[in-house]
């Protein structure tokens, strides 16, 4: 699982964090792990420009050009194959994937979700955390399953919810942790130190210590 394809829909700051960590930690030289392509479902995603600026191949599979989800996803799969991707990393990819897509990559699709799952699946997580009055919030990286934001959890990072927080302030605090957690989780999965076996996450003590961030 060394050839990573990143799927984005917008800004791409998580993609950038993964790329920069991979360069700094020399993933390609040490483990043979490479980001082989970035795909966006939106032609105007800012993350595409960053990818191009560092020489990573990009593609757009524009969901608006398809009549249904499955035909969109068939082309997505074709593009991932064209990049020879074997680990699919969702980084702010805002399309719900069907069981058809999920089946193509068993245990090989990761997502980052800006909340401590199983709390607050879905959208507007920071607003909902503030409304609920939780004092600890955060981010989760998980394997993607058929259930939206419901796959097995790989790692989590927590942040405090502070007096005077707005959704934007909280989002910013969480995002800093996303940029630490996601590269770490991706590397451990790519090296198969963390794996999905018969529906359950397997990892050693050292990996689990790296994937619980306070
Ligand atoms: C991130 O906060 C990510 O956790 C969230 O979108 C943002 C994308 O930012 N993902 C989801 O909400 C997935 N449902 P980025 O484009 O700068 O990485």
TrEMBL record:
Pathway(s) where this gene product acts: Purine metabolism; IMP biosynthesis via de novo pathway; N(2)-formyl-N(1)-(5-phospho-D-ribosyl)glycinamide from N(1)-(5-phospho-D-ribosyl)glycinamide (10-formyl THF route): step 1/1
Tell me which Gene3D superfamilies the record gives: Formyl transferase, N-terminal domain
Question: Per UniProt, where does N(1)-(5-phospho-beta-D-ribosyl)glycinamide bind?
Answer: 12-14
Question: One MF term in GO for this entry?
Answer: phosphoribosylglycinamide formyltransferase activity
Going by the record, the broad EC class of this enzyme is: transferase
Q: Which UniProt keywords apply?
A: Purine biosynthesis, Transferase
UniProt-annotated site: Raises pKa of active site His, residues: 149
- Residue positions of the active site: 113 (proton donor)
Q: Name one GO cellular component term.
A: cytosol
* EC annotation from Swiss-Prot or TrEMBL: 2.1.2.2
Q: Where does (6R)-10-formyltetrahydrofolate bind?
A: 69, 111
Keyword Transferase included in the entry's annotation: yes
Domain called Formyl transferase N-terminal: residue spans: 2-186
Biological process (GO), any one: 'de novo' IMP biosynthetic process
**Record's SUPFAM superfamilies?**
Formyltransferase (SSF53328)
Catalytic activity reads: N(1)-(5-phospho-beta-D-ribosyl)glycinamide + (6R)-10-formyltetrahydrofolate = N(2)-formyl-N(1)-(5-phospho-beta-D-ribosyl)glycinamide + (6S)-5,6,7,8-tetrahydrofolate + H(+)
Q: Which Pfam families match?
A: Formyl_trans_N
- The protein's role, per its UniProt record: Catalyzes the transfer of a formyl group from 10-formyltetrahydrofolate to 5-phospho-ribosyl-glycinamide (GAR), producing 5-phospho-ribosyl-N-formylglycinamide (FGAR) and tetrahydrofolate.
What family does this chain come from, according to its entry? Belongs to the GART family.
Its protein name is: Phosphoribosylglycinamide formyltransferase
């Amino acid at each position: 699982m060394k050839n990573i394809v990143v799927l984005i829909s917008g800004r791409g700051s998580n993609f950038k964090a993964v790329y920069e960590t991979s360069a700094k930690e020399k993933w390609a030289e040490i483990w043979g792990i490479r980001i082989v392509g970035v795909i966006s479902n939106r032609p105007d995603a800012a993350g595409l420009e960053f990818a191009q600026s560092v020489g990573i191949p990009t593609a757009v599979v524009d969901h608006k050009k398809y009549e249904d989800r499955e035909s969109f996803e068939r082309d997505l799969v074709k593009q991932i194959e064209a990049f020879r991707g074997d680990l699919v990393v969702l980084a702010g990819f805002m399309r719900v994937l069907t069981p058809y897509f999920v089946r193509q990559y068993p245990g090989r699709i990761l997502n980052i979700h800006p909340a401590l799952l199983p709390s607050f699946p879905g959208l507007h997580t920071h607003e909902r955390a503030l409304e609920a009055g939780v004092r600890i919030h955060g981010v989760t990286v998980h394997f993607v399953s058929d259930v939206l934001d419901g796959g097995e959890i790989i790692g989590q990072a927590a942040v405090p919810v502070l007096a005077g927080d707005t959704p934007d302030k909280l989002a910013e605090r969480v995002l800093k942790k996303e940029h630490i957690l996601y590269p770490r989780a991706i590397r451990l999965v790519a090296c198969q130190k963390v794996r999905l076996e018969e529906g359950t996450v397997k990892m050693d003590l050292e990996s689990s210590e790296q994937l619980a961030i306070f």
